[in-house]
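User: Run a structure prediction on this.
Assistant: Running it now.
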Amino acid sequence: MSADEVIALKREMDELVSTMCKAMNDPKRLMILYALKEQQLSVGDIADLLESNYANVSQHLAVLRERGLVESSRQRNTIYYSLRHPKIIDAIDTLRLVMQEEISRRIELLHPN
């Protein structure tokens, strides 16, 4: 890897951490992304689904929208949210698989056959 490639990669990683990773560093925001996986929902719909309060869900949606992970559309008096990049779920699922493998590895180290 050349020095220019390292510099470009560092910039890209800095941007990734400051946008996407910071947006996804809260379990509630991850649950909101999963709630939006197959359909657009209103804040109230998401709050009901996640058994959370409206204000809290609204704050999390604002972070996700600001970081470009969700988008909103108005239909009459209701604002609906949807995933801007549905493939983000694939990325989260990959991280979940890695985490599950790591948990299994740690359990095996603690309790070998």
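The two ends are 42 Å apart (CA to CA).
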